[in-house]
Amino acid sequence: MPVYSRAGVWRTTIMVLALLLTGVPPGAWAREFRAADTQSEDYPTVEALQYMGRLIAERSGGRHQIRVFHSRQLGEEKETIEQTRVGAIDLNRTNVALIGNFVPAMNVLAMPFLFRSIEHMQKVMDGPIGTSILDSFEPYGFVGLTFYDSGARSIYNSVRPVRTVADMKGLRLRVQQSELMSDMIKALGANPIELPYGQVRTGLATKLIDGAENNWPSFVTTDHYKYAGYYTLTEHAMSPEVLVMSQKAWESLSAEDRKIFREAALESSQFMRQKWKDLEERSRRQAESAGVTIVTDFDRKPFEAAMDGIYTKARRNPAAAELIERIRKVD
Fold it and tell me: Given this model, what pLDDT does residue 132 score?
């Protein structure tokens, strides 16, 4: 072994022994945690992660830091979820539709036309139902920390304004890499094209796809509005984002530090909501100024009726059926 390597090993050994002798538990050791988000640096979820990092650094006396990798630096969401599950990434903000491939309860939150309003969704997520859903992550290699808002998702395209289900026929619409979202678009008569989020702009520009479905900020901050001039306020999904932690990273924390992480995560959720509301309003104004046609006078009931088959399929799972009913009973 080279001399410098022996010296390095010896120094590391001395440090470990010193910590053991002073009675410092492993979870109290200083560490930098890697957090992944596919959105840009100024996006509300990224700002919320950075805010959470500041709280944790302060409350842990600087022992723990969070380094946020935004703009898909660690990969697309599907890839980062898998990396988080095996412990290569410590924290991950992700959409419920994608992590639903691992955690069954999350598929229910992505169901179309499940929530009546943003206020209804927030009341569900902030209450006992939301807590029980977060608690369901651990058997799958994750620890659920909190939910972030993601507004209401609507359909947009470059071909024609969508006012009826018939207007959906034949449209090639990008969907997340999710069976549920593909089924929803098929039920409406359009053709789902599964693409990673980062490839949607190119897909629109090259006419690989006619449109997609997403919220106002995603529609504008990614320049999708420059290629898809018709935005129909279907608001078919109001599923929240979720912040998860790798179970391996969680187990490395002491009980005291786990409390710090959970409380900081919950506070970051409230911080994010205000940031989100501001960005949503600015994004809609920007789209309107650019000449995007916003369709509000569409026939909503047939869209909801087209989802009957999806709900019938979901209710075959007793746990999913119970959760759907519990959510709909929340006033």
Answer: 96
pLDDT at 12 over 50: no
Contact between 170 and 182 under an 8 Å Cβ cutoff? The reply is no
Q: What is the pLDDT of residues 63-122, one digit of tens each?
A: 999 999 999 999 999 999 999 999 999 999 998 888 988 998 999 999 999 999 999 999
Whose tokens are 């990969």? That residue is 75
Q: Is 270 left (phi over 0), alpha (psi -120 to 50) or beta?
A: alpha
pLDDT in tens, 244-289: 999 999 999 999 999 999 999 999 999 999 999 999 999 999 999 9
Angle at 267 between CA 285 and CA 74, to 5 degrees: 70
How much is the pLDDT for 101? 85
Whole-model pTM? 0.85
Judged against a pLDDT cut of 50, whether residue 5 lies above it is answered with: no
Map residue 21 onto helix, strand or coil.
Answer: helix
Helix or strand or coil: residue 150? coil
Instruction: Compute the distance between CA of residue 139 and CA of residue 90 in angstroms, rounded to an integer.
Output: 17
Torsional class of 73: left (φ above 0), alpha (ψ -120 to 50), beta (otherwise): alpha
Q: What DSSP assignment string belongs to 60-113?
A: TTTSEEEEEE-TTTT--HHHHHHHHHHTSSSEEEEEHHHHTTT-HHHHHHT-TT
Q: How far is CA 27 from CA 55, 67, 137, 266, 294, in A?
A: 18, 18, 21, 21, 52
Contact indicator for 288, 219 with CB cutoff of 8 Å: no
CB 94 within 8 A of CB 244: yes
CB 137 within 8 A of CB 144: yes
Q: In 110-161, which residue ranges form alpha helices assigned H by DSSP? A: 118-126, 128-135
